[in-house]
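Q: what does this look like with NDP bound?
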Amino acid sequence: MILQETYTLNNGVKVPKLGLGTWQIPDGEEAYYSVLWALQNGYRHIDTAMAYGNEASVGRAIKDSGIAREEIFVTTKLPAEHKGYKITHQCFEKSLEALGLDYIDLYLIHAPWPWSNIGKDCTQENIESWKAMEEIYDTGKVKAIGVSNFEPKHIKPLLAEAKYVPMMNQIRFHIGEKQEETINYCKPLDIRITAYSPLATGRILGNKAIASMAEKYKVTPAQICIRYCLQKDTVVIPKSTKKERIISNSQVDFVISEEDMKVLDQM
Ligand code: NDP
């Protein structure tokens, strides 16, 4: 069953292949119940971020689920706007506090540049943030560290100064968004890819070719999109606030044939 399957990161830590995304889920009841329903239905991996503003509800749901902490993999992120050594330490502590946890499983630099200035060269600031993250990692308060939205040109200068190779790069990846350059760069370094927006934030679910493929396999278009990412060896973190969708998005224990994967690759 996919919910029980894991990948092993380059430091030996295991990450569940499927998780629940929580971007754009408002703090409060909605975030709380989305996470609680996911955990009650077998999910063991939750993706949040300080920037999503919902860490408190995510943490409350984790606690109320009654599931042992060590069975749940929690990812959160250093806001793209906050870069540098000191602020990274401060943000990490704030996330820990908001989540109400003693440790975090995966901490990521949310993006190589602030969202308000995409493309800005923040090489030095990212190196400083990475140094702080390595220090946190050495304390054991985080089990793995990584980056998000990083292209090879952002990772290379980090590696030149780093003690640890990032364990994860969380990037936009879905049918029609192949990210070949970044994936080909990360693979030999054993930097695992997480596919974010696996449903293209809902935008590809109405695609006719995906719908007809879904019909062929007697599954939903969302299940085709999620399964596609899994067969590309990525971690996948679909978001939903609807209980039935949270459940059905995890029912992806079918196999898309190699031939059909090639068809999807062409989209
Ligand atoms: P997804 O690609 O997961 O799509 C979510 C959308 O699809 C929502 O509108 C949801 O609506 C809808 N949906 C989900 N399941 C179904 C279904 N079975 N049938 C029909 N509609 C469905 O979107 P996200 O962009 O949120 O990406 C997933 C996660 O990736 C984020 O939540 C976040 O955790 C992470 N992420 C990380 C980023 C980064 O910079 N690191 C950037 C973007 C995302 P509803 O909720 O109503 O079901």
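Residues 123-139 form the longest helix (17 residues). The radius of gyration is 18 Å.
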